[in-house]
Amino acid sequence: MQHQYLSANALAIANDWRPVYHLSRAAELMRIGAEWPRLSSIGVQLHDGWRFSDRAGSDWYLKNISLKDPTKRNPITAEYLPLNVTETHQKRAEQYRIAIEGERYYRMRHIGEMHIKPDAKLMKPPAFSDLNSCITPNDILLRRIGKVSAALVSQYHRRHPVDANIAIIRGLNARQAVWLAYCLNQPLYKSYLEQQFSGSSLIRVGLKHLANMPVTRCPVEFNELADEFHLNYESLVRSDDTLFALRKDVQGWLDQHLPLTDDSEGDAEPKFVARFFKAQDLGLQLNYAATEQASQARILKEEFGCVPIRQLAAVNPKITRLTHQHTTTGFQIIKIKDINEQQAITKLTESSSESAWRYHKRLLSKFDVLVSTFVQEPKVAIVSNEISAPTFASEQLAVLNFHHTPGAYALLMETPMVRRQITGLATGMVQRFIQPKMLERIVLPRIDRDMAHKWHHQLIELLKEKASANEKLEALYKKMYLVYRQLHPEMNR
Predict the structure, then answer these.
(1) DSSP H helical segments within 283-325, as ranges?
(2) Where along the chain do the CATH 3.90.220.10 domains lie?
(3) Cα–Cα distance, 330 to 33 (Å, whole number)
């Protein structure tokens, strides 16, 4: 049986008197930092995230967006009666609606360790930015549910609100914010924040618990590292802006050259309306979405010169060289989860003797384009650099080897025009996916060579800049850890 002796003072400063707490790593921070100031005493403000409901029938939605009184109904129609509101309230209701329907708010999935991971929706202008729950530069965003992580806000992030599952730590200068964010991502602090109190089965970080957390002041040795972090972090965030602008250029070109396209979301459910289709558009699937796709593809080919993707690229190309060596040297498998929202493949950490995963038996090479075959996860990535280790793509991904300017076509593959086609050609009830033969039916416009070379070059250079910034940050984290260990000597790596 594990045991230890505790002083009366140790019990006095503890958040929890349970033996299981004092025997856990959650209590270490209170013991190590007994003489440190508490977070609440160093001049920070702690804010909850935005509390709202996206259910149209909820009291919050009725009151704040529909502008209806949830307590009063028409006795005949049973409809909720309208609230007597000002023009200001009407404007706010519209702002709330845009934010919620457009998902212009930060959620837990956007909060990584040190980094915010925005998607395309978060690159749009904020619907509003005047609440405490809207982010500001040097804020620390703390994921409060389950696994804790903390990310830093740069001056280039859009000032959307965060939802109620995220806490905001505000009021630190740039260097202090980097230091605290780094500490919060270390096991010692995570153990403290993730401790479960008596009677609770859900890990949720409360603001009072956070306020009582011991913290060390930012050491002088960390200042230069913090400055370097900001330099590289802001470079990453700016690159997200650049990619967003590049995607807008591609969509603008499509809107100009193909009037049948628009920038609406391509993964939306098709609208079933009465329509007549030509017999040639009817295929073996005999469903509305597939027939609609066939009709649109025919029009795009006949009137706008679009061509099937198989004329522009090899779809899931076969083995072109011997690959038996990987069985003895080890290999990597890229899966959907290894692709982020910025056309990049994240760093692979898993070993790659993963025999349970089905994968394409062809080594990936530079400029291969990877496309998710799952409708629910519409991801696209390009292999922007030479791959040193033997690497394959899982069968969750389609591999496209374009004959020229693959970067330009990688950008096209993520547009609503293509997403709609993938949705229309997908099969399956629970998990909808597109089969390789159906993928070959997707049509794409031919891009002017000069424009295609421009897009390709911009995307590849952008991804190189991001990769370089990430490499510098990884090296920087190692230096940060050495400074961190000086003040936290009892922590094991």
Answers:
(1) 288-304
(2) 8-50+105-218
(3) 44
CA distance 361 to 346: 21
Which pairing describes strands 166-170 and 332-334: parallel, antiparallel, or unpaired?
A: unpaired
CB neighbours of residue 278 within 10 Å:
10
CATH architecture assignment, domain 8-50+105-218 = Alpha-Beta Complex (3.90)
What average pLDDT score do residues 473-492 get? 87
pLDDT of residue 250: 95
For the packed helices 416-425 and 288-304, what is the interaxial angle rounded to 10 degrees? 140
The residue assigned the tokens 């929202």 is 341
Q: Residue 319 has which token pair?
A: 């083995």
Residues of the chain with CATH 3.90.220.20: 243-455
Q: Is the pTM of this model over 0.70?
A: yes
Q: How are strands ordered across the β-sheet holding 397-402? A: 313-315, 397-402, 369-372, 380-382
Which residues are within 8 A (CB) of 31 and not within 5 positions of it... i.e. 6 or more apart? 10
Instruction: Compute the distance between CA of residue 470 and CA of residue 178 in angstroms, rounded to an integer.
Output: 16
Report CA 220 to chain centroid distance, whole Å: 34
pLDDT at 246 over 70: yes
When pLDDT is cut at 50, 70 and 90, the band that residue 351 belongs to is: very low
pLDDT tens column, 261-293: 555 544 444 445 555 556 555 555 556 566 777
Instruction: Count CA atoms closer than 13 A to 124's CA, side-chain side.
Output: 12
Q: What distance in Å separates the CA atoms of residue 371 and residue 444, rounded to the nearest whole number?
A: 15
**Is residue 386 predicted with pLDDT exceeding 90?**
no
Instruction: Provide the β-strand partners of residue 152.
Output: 140
CATH of domain 243-455: 3.90.220.20
Interatomic CA distance for residues 392 and 207, integer angstroms: 45
Question: Which stretches does DSSP call E strand in 255-382?
Answer: 307-308, 313-315, 332-334, 369-372, 380-382
